[in-house]
Design brief:
- The chain is α+β, with helices and mostly antiparallel strands.
- Helix content is 36%, strand content 30%.
- It folds into two domains: 190 residues, Gcn5-related N-acetyltransferase (GNAT) (Aminopeptidase); 136 residues, 3-Layer(aba) Sandwich (Aminopeptidase).
- The protein contains eleven helices and 13 strands.
Amino acid sequence: MDTTISAYARPQDLPADARRLLERAGARNLELGYDWFSNLVDTVYKDSPDLRFYVMRRAGTPVALLPVRVETVRFGQQVAALSNFYSALYEPAFDEGLDADALKPLLQAIRKDFPRAYSLWFSPMDPQSQAYKLLIGACRSSGWAAFEFFCFGNWFLRIEDAWTGYFQKRAGAVRSTVKRMSKKFAAAGGRLQIVRELADLPQAIAAYEHIYGRSWKKPEPHADFIPGLINTFGQAGQLLMGVAWLGEQAIASQLWLVGAGRAEIFKLAYDEEFKEFSPGTLLTTLLMEQVFEQVQEIDYLIGDDTYKSAWMAERRERWGFVAYRRASLAGSLAILRESATRLLKRLRATPAEKTAP
Protein backbone atom coordinates (compact mmCIF):
# COMPACT_ATOMS: atom_id res chain seq x y z
CA MET A 1 0.00 0.00 0.00
CA ASP A 2 1.35 3.43 -1.00
CA THR A 3 2.54 5.33 2.10
CA THR A 4 3.49 9.02 2.09
CA ILE A 5 4.64 11.38 4.83
CA SER A 6 3.98 15.12 4.92
CA ALA A 7 5.07 17.63 7.54
CA TYR A 8 3.43 20.90 8.56
CA ALA A 9 4.74 23.62 10.88
CA ARG A 10 1.46 24.59 12.55
CA PRO A 11 -1.96 23.03 13.06
CA GLN A 12 -3.45 25.85 10.99
CA ASP A 13 -1.38 24.57 8.04
CA LEU A 14 -2.95 21.12 8.11
CA PRO A 15 -5.15 20.23 5.13
CA ALA A 16 -8.77 19.49 5.94
CA ASP A 17 -8.46 15.70 5.88
CA ALA A 18 -5.51 15.70 8.30
CA ARG A 19 -7.23 18.23 10.53
CA ARG A 20 -10.21 15.88 10.84
CA LEU A 21 -7.87 13.22 12.22
CA LEU A 22 -6.83 15.65 14.94
CA GLU A 23 -10.42 16.69 15.60
CA ARG A 24 -11.46 13.06 16.06
CA ALA A 25 -8.76 12.71 18.71
CA GLY A 26 -10.12 15.83 20.41
CA ALA A 27 -13.55 14.23 20.53
CA ARG A 28 -12.04 11.71 22.99
CA ASN A 29 -9.99 14.16 25.02
CA LEU A 30 -9.79 17.94 24.55
CA GLU A 31 -6.01 17.98 25.07
CA LEU A 32 -5.55 15.80 22.00
CA GLY A 33 -7.47 18.04 19.64
CA TYR A 34 -6.97 20.86 17.17
CA ASP A 35 -7.94 23.70 19.53
CA TRP A 36 -5.52 22.56 22.23
CA PHE A 37 -2.54 22.32 19.87
CA SER A 38 -3.41 25.62 18.18
CA ASN A 39 -3.35 27.49 21.49
CA LEU A 40 -0.20 25.67 22.64
CA VAL A 41 1.66 26.59 19.46
CA ASP A 42 0.42 30.18 19.37
CA THR A 43 1.21 31.00 23.00
CA VAL A 44 4.06 28.71 24.07
CA TYR A 45 5.92 27.71 20.92
CA LYS A 46 5.16 30.66 18.66
CA ASP A 47 8.87 31.46 18.25
CA SER A 48 10.01 27.87 17.80
CA PRO A 49 11.24 27.16 14.25
CA ASP A 50 11.24 23.39 14.59
CA LEU A 51 7.68 22.23 15.18
CA ARG A 52 6.33 19.47 12.99
CA PHE A 53 2.93 17.89 12.53
CA TYR A 54 3.84 14.71 10.69
CA VAL A 55 0.96 13.20 8.71
CA MET A 56 1.17 9.69 7.34
CA ARG A 57 -1.17 8.74 4.51
CA ARG A 58 -2.02 5.36 3.09
CA ALA A 59 -3.52 5.39 -0.39
CA GLY A 60 -4.01 9.13 0.10
CA THR A 61 -5.95 8.81 3.39
CA PRO A 62 -4.45 10.21 6.63
CA VAL A 63 -3.97 7.38 9.13
CA ALA A 64 -1.50 8.90 11.60
CA LEU A 65 -0.63 12.37 12.89
CA LEU A 66 2.39 12.92 15.14
CA PRO A 67 2.94 16.42 16.63
CA VAL A 68 6.55 16.98 17.74
CA ARG A 69 9.04 19.70 18.56
CA VAL A 70 12.78 19.56 18.00
CA GLU A 71 15.32 20.92 20.45
CA THR A 72 19.06 21.37 20.19
CA VAL A 73 20.72 19.53 23.07
CA ARG A 74 24.23 18.52 23.94
CA PHE A 75 25.79 16.44 21.16
CA GLY A 76 22.85 16.83 18.76
CA GLN A 77 19.09 17.17 18.67
CA GLN A 78 16.14 15.73 20.56
CA VAL A 79 12.72 15.14 19.03
CA ALA A 80 10.02 15.41 21.70
CA ALA A 81 6.27 15.30 22.08
CA LEU A 82 4.58 18.62 21.37
CA SER A 83 3.69 19.05 25.03
CA ASN A 84 4.93 20.88 28.10
CA PHE A 85 4.09 21.28 31.79
CA TYR A 86 0.55 22.43 30.88
CA SER A 87 -0.09 19.05 29.23
CA ALA A 88 -1.83 16.38 31.29
CA LEU A 89 -1.89 13.95 28.37
CA TYR A 90 -0.14 13.62 25.04
CA GLU A 91 -1.19 11.15 22.39
CA PRO A 92 -0.60 11.04 18.64
CA ALA A 93 -3.67 10.51 16.47
CA PHE A 94 -3.52 6.98 15.04
CA ASP A 95 -6.19 5.16 13.08
CA GLU A 96 -7.34 1.81 14.37
CA GLY A 97 -5.76 -1.12 12.59
CA LEU A 98 -2.22 0.25 12.59
CA ASP A 99 0.59 -1.78 14.08
CA ALA A 100 4.03 -0.73 15.29
CA ASP A 101 5.74 -1.60 12.00
CA ALA A 102 3.28 0.60 10.12
CA LEU A 103 4.65 3.62 11.99
CA LYS A 104 8.24 3.11 10.89
CA PRO A 105 7.91 5.58 7.96
CA LEU A 106 7.15 8.32 10.50
CA LEU A 107 10.41 7.66 12.33
CA GLN A 108 12.28 7.47 9.02
CA ALA A 109 10.89 10.88 8.06
CA ILE A 110 12.04 12.37 11.36
CA ARG A 111 15.46 10.82 10.88
CA LYS A 112 15.69 12.31 7.38
CA ASP A 113 14.54 15.80 8.43
CA PHE A 114 16.71 15.92 11.55
CA PRO A 115 19.82 13.77 10.97
CA ARG A 116 21.47 15.05 14.17
CA ALA A 117 18.58 13.76 16.33
CA TYR A 118 19.74 10.94 18.56
CA SER A 119 16.89 10.86 21.10
CA LEU A 120 13.09 10.76 21.07
CA TRP A 121 11.12 11.85 24.12
CA PHE A 122 7.38 11.27 24.44
CA SER A 123 5.38 12.19 27.54
CA PRO A 124 3.05 12.38 29.39
CA MET A 125 1.13 9.42 27.98
CA ASP A 126 -1.30 6.74 29.10
CA PRO A 127 0.88 3.60 29.27
CA GLN A 128 -2.19 1.43 28.68
CA SER A 129 -3.19 3.21 25.48
CA GLN A 130 -2.76 1.69 22.06
CA ALA A 131 -0.94 4.82 20.90
CA TYR A 132 1.71 4.42 23.61
CA LYS A 133 2.26 0.75 22.80
CA LEU A 134 2.47 1.40 19.06
CA LEU A 135 4.87 4.32 19.39
CA ILE A 136 7.30 2.64 21.74
CA GLY A 137 7.06 -0.55 19.69
CA ALA A 138 7.86 1.34 16.50
CA CYS A 139 10.91 2.92 18.13
CA ARG A 140 12.24 -0.42 19.34
CA SER A 141 11.65 -2.21 16.05
CA SER A 142 13.41 0.67 14.26
CA GLY A 143 16.59 0.19 16.25
CA TRP A 144 16.09 2.73 19.02
CA ALA A 145 16.65 1.72 22.66
CA ALA A 146 13.59 2.84 24.64
CA PHE A 147 13.45 3.46 28.38
CA GLU A 148 10.16 4.10 30.17
CA PHE A 149 9.70 6.53 33.06
CA PHE A 150 6.96 7.62 35.45
CA CYS A 151 5.56 11.14 35.01
CA PHE A 152 2.84 11.70 37.62
CA GLY A 153 -0.25 10.29 39.27
CA ASN A 154 -3.66 11.24 37.92
CA TRP A 155 -6.76 11.25 40.16
CA PHE A 156 -10.16 10.94 38.51
CA LEU A 157 -13.79 10.05 39.14
CA ARG A 158 -16.12 7.93 37.04
CA ILE A 159 -19.64 9.29 37.39
CA GLU A 160 -21.77 6.40 38.68
CA ASP A 161 -24.17 8.25 40.98
CA ALA A 162 -26.35 11.33 41.18
CA TRP A 163 -24.79 14.45 42.70
CA THR A 164 -26.72 14.21 45.96
CA GLY A 165 -25.71 10.61 46.54
CA TYR A 166 -22.11 11.31 45.65
CA PHE A 167 -21.82 14.33 47.94
CA GLN A 168 -23.35 12.47 50.87
CA LYS A 169 -20.57 9.91 50.53
CA ARG A 170 -17.83 12.52 50.93
CA ALA A 171 -15.95 12.60 54.21
CA GLY A 172 -17.74 14.34 57.04
CA ALA A 173 -14.99 16.94 57.24
CA VAL A 174 -15.57 17.91 53.60
CA ARG A 175 -19.34 18.19 53.97
CA SER A 176 -18.97 20.14 57.21
CA THR A 177 -16.50 22.57 55.63
CA VAL A 178 -18.83 23.25 52.71
CA LYS A 179 -21.80 23.85 55.00
CA ARG A 180 -19.97 26.09 57.47
CA MET A 181 -18.00 28.09 54.93
CA SER A 182 -21.00 28.63 52.66
CA LYS A 183 -22.75 30.42 55.53
CA LYS A 184 -19.65 32.30 56.63
CA PHE A 185 -18.80 33.41 53.09
CA ALA A 186 -22.33 34.59 52.33
CA ALA A 187 -22.54 36.48 55.65
CA ALA A 188 -19.32 38.33 54.78
CA GLY A 189 -20.77 39.45 51.45
CA GLY A 190 -19.27 36.70 49.33
CA ARG A 191 -20.73 35.24 46.17
CA LEU A 192 -19.80 32.57 43.66
CA GLN A 193 -19.99 33.29 39.95
CA ILE A 194 -20.12 30.85 37.06
CA VAL A 195 -18.87 32.54 33.92
CA ARG A 196 -21.42 31.73 31.23
CA GLU A 197 -21.28 34.49 28.61
CA LEU A 198 -18.52 35.25 26.12
CA ALA A 199 -18.89 38.92 27.02
CA ASP A 200 -17.81 38.06 30.58
CA LEU A 201 -14.54 36.40 29.54
CA PRO A 202 -12.32 39.52 29.66
CA GLN A 203 -13.43 40.22 33.24
CA ALA A 204 -12.95 36.55 34.13
CA ILE A 205 -9.41 36.55 32.69
CA ALA A 206 -8.55 39.72 34.63
CA ALA A 207 -9.96 38.20 37.82
CA TYR A 208 -7.98 34.99 37.32
CA GLU A 209 -4.73 36.83 36.69
CA HIS A 210 -5.28 39.03 39.77
CA ILE A 211 -5.94 36.00 41.97
CA TYR A 212 -3.07 34.00 40.52
CA GLY A 213 -0.71 36.89 41.18
CA ARG A 214 -1.71 36.89 44.86
CA SER A 215 -1.62 33.12 45.26
CA TRP A 216 1.19 30.85 46.34
CA LYS A 217 1.95 29.86 42.76
CA LYS A 218 4.94 30.91 40.70
CA PRO A 219 4.32 33.38 37.86
CA GLU A 220 3.25 31.81 34.58
CA PRO A 221 6.25 31.49 32.26
CA HIS A 222 3.96 31.83 29.24
CA ALA A 223 1.60 34.64 30.11
CA ASP A 224 -0.60 34.25 27.01
CA PHE A 225 -1.37 30.55 27.41
CA ILE A 226 -4.17 30.71 30.00
CA PRO A 227 -5.97 33.72 28.44
CA GLY A 228 -5.68 31.95 25.09
CA LEU A 229 -7.08 28.76 26.58
CA ILE A 230 -9.99 30.61 28.16
CA ASN A 231 -10.85 32.40 24.93
CA THR A 232 -10.39 29.34 22.71
CA PHE A 233 -12.48 26.91 24.74
CA GLY A 234 -14.90 29.62 25.85
CA GLN A 235 -15.80 30.33 22.24
CA ALA A 236 -16.14 26.59 21.63
CA GLY A 237 -18.59 26.27 24.53
CA GLN A 238 -16.18 23.96 26.39
CA LEU A 239 -15.13 26.23 29.24
CA LEU A 240 -16.42 26.12 32.80
CA MET A 241 -15.00 28.90 34.93
CA GLY A 242 -15.88 29.92 38.45
CA VAL A 243 -14.89 33.01 40.41
CA ALA A 244 -15.39 33.67 44.12
CA TRP A 245 -15.99 37.32 44.96
CA LEU A 246 -15.85 39.02 48.34
CA GLY A 247 -17.59 42.28 47.68
CA GLU A 248 -15.95 43.56 44.51
CA GLN A 249 -12.71 41.65 45.04
CA ALA A 250 -12.00 38.37 43.26
CA ILE A 251 -10.44 35.95 45.77
CA ALA A 252 -10.52 32.53 44.08
CA SER A 253 -10.90 31.15 40.59
CA GLN A 254 -11.07 27.77 38.89
CA LEU A 255 -10.72 26.95 35.21
CA TRP A 256 -12.26 23.71 33.93
CA LEU A 257 -12.45 22.32 30.41
CA VAL A 258 -15.62 20.36 29.66
CA GLY A 259 -16.05 18.24 26.55
CA ALA A 260 -15.71 14.76 25.10
CA GLY A 261 -17.73 13.46 28.05
CA ARG A 262 -15.13 14.71 30.52
CA ALA A 263 -14.61 17.62 32.90
CA GLU A 264 -10.97 18.56 33.47
CA ILE A 265 -10.06 20.63 36.52
CA PHE A 266 -7.31 22.49 34.76
CA LYS A 267 -6.31 25.45 36.92
CA LEU A 268 -7.20 26.71 40.38
CA ALA A 269 -5.91 29.51 42.56
CA TYR A 270 -6.97 31.55 45.56
CA ASP A 271 -5.80 34.65 47.37
CA GLU A 272 -4.14 33.39 50.56
CA GLU A 273 -5.34 36.43 52.46
CA PHE A 274 -8.85 34.96 52.30
CA LYS A 275 -8.18 31.26 52.82
CA GLU A 276 -10.27 31.35 56.02
CA PHE A 277 -13.35 31.13 53.78
CA SER A 278 -12.12 27.98 51.94
CA PRO A 279 -13.13 29.59 48.62
CA GLY A 280 -11.46 26.85 46.61
CA THR A 281 -13.54 24.15 48.29
CA LEU A 282 -16.71 26.16 47.71
CA LEU A 283 -15.91 26.62 44.03
CA THR A 284 -15.05 22.94 43.57
CA THR A 285 -18.39 21.95 45.09
CA LEU A 286 -20.32 24.38 42.88
CA LEU A 287 -18.59 23.43 39.63
CA MET A 288 -18.76 19.70 40.30
CA GLU A 289 -22.48 19.96 40.87
CA GLN A 290 -22.84 21.86 37.59
CA VAL A 291 -21.24 19.12 35.49
CA PHE A 292 -21.89 16.03 37.56
CA GLU A 293 -24.68 14.52 35.52
CA GLN A 294 -23.49 15.91 32.17
CA VAL A 295 -20.17 14.01 31.89
CA GLN A 296 -18.89 10.50 32.43
CA GLU A 297 -15.64 11.47 34.12
CA ILE A 298 -14.13 14.28 36.19
CA ASP A 299 -10.35 14.51 36.05
CA TYR A 300 -7.96 16.30 38.43
CA LEU A 301 -5.19 15.93 35.84
CA ILE A 302 -1.64 16.34 37.15
CA GLY A 303 -0.29 15.22 40.51
CA ASP A 304 -0.93 13.36 43.73
CA ASP A 305 -1.94 16.33 45.88
CA THR A 306 -3.59 15.09 49.06
CA TYR A 307 -6.81 17.06 48.64
CA LYS A 308 -7.64 15.31 45.37
CA SER A 309 -8.47 12.00 47.01
CA ALA A 310 -11.25 13.74 48.96
CA TRP A 311 -13.14 14.24 45.70
CA MET A 312 -11.86 11.56 43.33
CA ALA A 313 -12.19 7.78 43.65
CA GLU A 314 -9.46 6.36 41.41
CA ARG A 315 -5.86 6.94 40.51
CA ARG A 316 -3.98 6.09 37.35
CA GLU A 317 -0.51 6.97 36.13
CA ARG A 318 0.95 8.85 33.24
CA TRP A 319 4.25 7.62 31.85
CA GLY A 320 6.62 8.47 29.08
CA PHE A 321 9.64 7.05 27.35
CA VAL A 322 12.93 8.23 25.94
CA ALA A 323 14.47 6.38 23.02
CA TYR A 324 18.07 6.64 21.87
CA ARG A 325 19.35 5.84 18.40
CA ARG A 326 21.82 3.01 18.66
CA ALA A 327 23.49 3.85 15.34
CA SER A 328 25.01 7.09 16.64
CA LEU A 329 27.80 7.86 19.05
CA ALA A 330 25.67 10.26 21.10
CA GLY A 331 22.86 7.72 21.25
CA SER A 332 25.18 4.90 22.31
CA LEU A 333 26.69 7.02 25.08
CA ALA A 334 23.20 8.01 26.25
CA ILE A 335 22.15 4.35 26.36
CA LEU A 336 25.14 3.52 28.55
CA ARG A 337 24.42 6.43 30.86
CA GLU A 338 20.71 5.62 31.09
CA SER A 339 21.37 1.94 31.76
CA ALA A 340 23.97 2.69 34.45
CA THR A 341 21.70 5.24 36.17
CA ARG A 342 18.80 2.81 36.29
CA LEU A 343 20.97 -0.03 37.56
CA LEU A 344 22.40 2.16 40.32
CA LYS A 345 18.92 3.31 41.33
CA ARG A 346 17.75 -0.29 41.47
CA LEU A 347 20.69 -1.31 43.64
CA ARG A 348 20.00 1.53 46.07
CA ALA A 349 16.26 0.86 46.23
CA THR A 350 14.62 -0.49 49.38
CA PRO A 351 13.04 -3.97 49.26
CA ALA A 352 9.58 -2.39 48.94
CA GLU A 353 10.71 -0.22 46.05
CA LYS A 354 12.26 -3.21 44.29
CA THR A 355 8.97 -5.11 44.37
CA ALA A 356 6.84 -2.12 43.34
CA PRO A 357 5.33 -2.28 39.84
